[in-house]
Design a protein that fits this description.
The chain is an alpha+beta fold and 458 residues long. Among the domains are: 183 residues, PAS domain (Beta-Lactamase), CATH 3.30.450.20; 128 residues, Histidine kinase-like ATPase, C-terminal domain (Heat Shock Protein 90, 2-Layer Sandwich). The chain is built from nine helices and eleven strands. Strands 1, 2, 3, 4, 5 and 6 form a six-stranded antiparallel sheet that branches. Strand 4 and strand 5 form a beta hairpin. Helix 1 runs antiparallel to helix 4, helix 7 packs parallel to helix 8 and helix 8 packs antiparallel against helix 9. The longest helix has 100 residues.
Length: 458
């Protein structure tokens, strides 16, 4: 997987995980709230039903109270009470019923086939002994009982809430009930609304997650394009710098060959031709002219060696880095007139060829910058071998400059390229400058050492 894909995945996956966790939490929270709301609605409706049933029974008692409280217990009075109760109704399924304490039905206006039957052992679909439960509730004083009963208007068995009281003197149980289909419908509606709310919330979260993922993807794509363009620009600049450096080096070598070697060779040619004519004519000056040509040929050979040394010092391959630096320091001191203190403590520290060349070129560039910009009189150079690393320090007593001007001082490879050389080998590059002192310190890992982090110039 490419790095850009990993970055997008690391951006999107936590977002999707967070959205999934939020969805789960919202789902369970909405379910819990829906159940709580359903219980509250059910409790509220049942409370109103209980109050309504109690009111109906109290109304019925107030109607039959004159007959019941007259003190007469004859059959005629009882029949008159049953007749009055049978005529009282509310709604299509609201009626009163009367049972004797032994479970025999005395009055049931909606189900006349039950009148006179002993229903003591009758059970509802849940196995509840209905009449016994009603009798027990009436005798205990609570009066309310929940059971299943056939609804007259539909003929279907449904939940019913009844309220019963005892007429103690006659041993009767009087009561009425309300069917609870509306309660079930209200609770089902609450559950439906809760489910719809959950679905709507989930859709909203999914929509937001999709928008977020698209934004992350678009941002990642834009960042990727921007990074690609930046990398392309840097690559183009680097390529152009390499081409420029190659052309500069070729121009330098070409100038030195043309202005040095070529002129020397032409001069040597003329000297040899002159010596040839002089010797052919018997002129004794021919040998002297030939000697001058030979001397100039030795100078040409020395110039070739100098150019070769500038391109790649042979001492690096034969005697190693300390000897090559020593020769570089001696030549620089002779050419520039600066006083140079060179201390070599490399010891047995091992460097590969690339690191040795890098340190040599870094010192070469540092000395060139000192000669051109520092206006120094003394330079101190130290090459130290330490545990698993080698350190090169170059310090001068010149005028110094602000490190912020680092990029403005590039000449040839330049200080920025020195830093790039160090970074290539996983080393550290530190640079400090102030009036009277400028110090460059480079640390590279030796063979077998793990690369260090790159330290930027300070």
């Amino acid at each position: 997987m490419q790095l850009k894909h990993k970055i997008v995945a690391l951006s999107v996956l936590p977002l999707l995980l967070a959205v999934a966790v939020v969805c789960v939490l919202v789902f369970f929270q909405n379910q819990r709230l829906g159940e709580q709301q359903a219980r509250l609605i059910e409790s509220s409706i049942l409370a109103s039903k209980r109050a309504e049933l109690k009111h109906y029974v109290e109304m019925a008692l107030s109607i039959v109270s004159p007959l019941y409280e007259s003190g007469r217990d004859d059959a005629e009075t009882k029949q008159r009470v049953l007749a009055v109760l049978a005529r009282i109704s509310f709604g299509s399924d609201g009626y009163f019923f009367v049972y004797e304490s032994n479970g025999r039905n005395l009055m049931h206006p909606r189900q006349g086939e039950l009148v006179g039957k002993d229903l003591w052992n009758m059970t509802d679909p849940r196995g509840l002994l209905v009449i016994q439960a009603l009798m027990k509730s009436a005798q205990s004083g609570d009066g309310f009982q929940h059971y299943a009963w056939q609804k007259p208007s539909t003929g279907e068995v449904t939940d019913k809430l009844a309220y019963v009281v005892m007429l103690e003197r006659w041993g009767w149980m009087l009561g009425t009930g309300i069917y609870l289909e509306d309660v079930d419908q209200a609770i089902a509606q609450v559950h439906d609304e809760a489910t719809s709310g959950i679905h709507a919330t989930m859709l909203a979260i999914a929509g937001l997650a999709l928008v977020a993922v698209l934004l992350v993807f678009a941002g990642g794509l834009a960042l990727n394009l921007s990074e690609h363009r930046l990398a392309d620009r840097k690559l183009q600049l680097l390529t152009q710098r390499i081409v420029n450096l190659q052309e500069e080096e070729r121009s330098r070598v070409s100038r030195e060959l043309h202005d040095g070697i070529s002129q020397l060779l032409v001069s040597i040619k003329f000297q040899f031709e002159l010596a040839s004519h002089q010797l052919a004519s018997g002129n004794d000056a021919g040998m002297q002219t030939l000697q001058k040509g030979t001397d100039r040929l030795a100078g040409a050979i020395g110039e070739v060696r100098r150019i070769s040394h500038d391109l790649h010092p042979s001492l690096l391959d034969t005697l190693g880095l300390p000897a090559a630096i020593g020769q570089l320091v001696a030549e620089f001191e002779q050419r520039s007139g600066l006083t140079i203190d060179y201390r070599n403590s490399l010891g047995d520290t091992l460097l590969n060829d690339g690191q040795a060349v890098a340190l040599f070129r870094i010192l070469q560039e540092a000395l060139t910058n000192i000669e051109r910009h520092a206006q120094a009189t003394r330079v101190r150079i130290s090459l130290d071998g330490m545990a698993q690393r080698v350190r090169l320090r170059v310090r001068d007593n010149g005028i110094g400059f602000s490190p912020k001007q680092l990029d403005k001082l590039n000449d040839g490879i330049g200080l920025r390229n020195i830093r790039e050389r160090v970074e290539h080998f996983g080393g550290r590059f530190a640079f400090e400058s102030e009036p009277g002192q400028t110090e460059l310190m480079v640390t590279l890992p030796s063979q077998g050492a793990s690369p260090s982090r790159v330290e930027q110039p300070t």
